[in-house]
């Protein structure tokens, strides 16, 4: 169920439910995709993912050998996600979870775009999000894994605002 505070309106709740349902669609498209946190169950207002015992990426500073393994795995997983015609759009260290064996998995697809199957993922652009923007965001995650320091940037900071 979406969070509801005293100040939350019914419209806010409906928007949050739509976001949950869109994310469910992404998880359905990515079902059985190695390197993505498995979706255990879903209802109209909920999404239950597999428990990842070791939490998120920022809480872990492994040895370089494991870092290199993670970098290979997240790159391969991203390629598998593109094979299923999904643009992730929110690649950040907080959206990688670690299983009990320290394998790394993508999660949080609330900002993702599902493209029609067969889409040329190298050229598609969905409101400014593309494979190229995903790779830029992945670069920031790689930097954080290697250095332990967050690399923040705004892909759209120099673009004029559209009214």
UniProtKB/TrEMBL annotation:
InterPro entries, alphabetized: Kinase-like_dom_sf
SUPFAM superfamilies xref list: Protein kinase-like (PK-like)
This protein's name: Protein kinase domain-containing protein
UniProt source species: Coccidioides immitis RMSCC 3703
